[in-house]
Sequence to fold (402 residues):
Amino acid sequence: MHPHDFLNNCKKEIVELQTLLTSIPAIAPEGGGDGEAKKCDALEKWLKANGFENIERFEAPDSRVSSGVRPSLVVTIPGQDDSQRVWVMAHMDVVPVGDPKLWNTDPWTVVQKDGRLYGRGVEDNQQGLCSAVFAALYFIKNKIVPAHTVKLLLAADEENGSAYGAIWLIHNTSLFRKNDLILIPDGGDSQGRTIEIAEKNLLWLSVHVMGKQTHGSRPDSGANACLAACDLSVRLHKLESVFDKCDPLFEPDYSTFQPTKREKNVDSINIIPGEDRFCMDCRILPCYSLQEVLAQVDRCCREVEKEYGVKVEYTTPQKSESPATPVDAPVAQKLAAAIKRVHGLEPKFIGIGGGTVGAEFRREGIDAVVWSTLDDQAHQPNEYCVVENLIKDSLTLVDLFT
Fold:
């Protein structure tokens, strides 16, 4: 059977799987949930009932959840050639619903309307999960051996950094090889044109400025931490003109250094604060190392200390850098060719300012790409998945596996 006919005949089963997965909230402890165990159990049962035989379960210990573990599944479809495997990594966990009053339907019950499925998680990341599962199911039901061994990683803990999911698997198993092709269907555009191959380096700063508190009428007898912090935040923002290269792969195409969160200092207008705290969110082009960026941060801090008579300390709540996947990498070119054949589109390679689990693989020297056809409903109320997008993505994966 042609894959298009097979997948269109599977629409009922696709909706049923989406309905099953949505009905079992898989929220991390950070979001007040109990993890993925129950959802993983239901998914594993569904896979076995539908002919998947080679299923491995990996469990990262986590005492915060009732099961004590954060499970991930690896499903294998043996190929003609096992020397280079094709991985599709989707995640089972979802984010909380947010304000329930903003939802038009029950977030945990799939509602089908006008070619869309509504519910928490249906796009992020159950669309990618289902597209991968039904692409693999095409080979199983039709007894077709894919060109290369196909592996589906249905992971835990993506929404909160992957410490109990992909990162744990990278460091505690020997699942991955350097020449594996890794596709993450967890980001893209409504046409399915863009392939994400790079991320900006991420640097969060939490800055603590310590001066001397005094009365508002006697600034001469104190050291105004608020004034020093304001100046420092502007100096750090102006690092955009120091690290001033542009890269059209990204939008915006330059490095950004932005002041964000500010914490309360004093309770009265007539008190000059002795302490002030603020945060910076910096997204830096990968041509710059975080080491050279932090050297400039330190320079700015020392200058402000000297000028205002304060002491400055900072921490880095998040700090991440990763190489890009080359445009000519096999996974990028094979996916681009599949998109051309299935979508009839000329793919566009892009970089993003946000972070994905793809960076974890790139840091290990494994090329990874992020791609899907979606309306970018992630984390929003009334999240939806377009059924035809899911089927089109599944067709693209069949082509990639072939």
About this structure: The chain has a mean pLDDT of 96. The two ends are 14 Å apart (CA to CA).
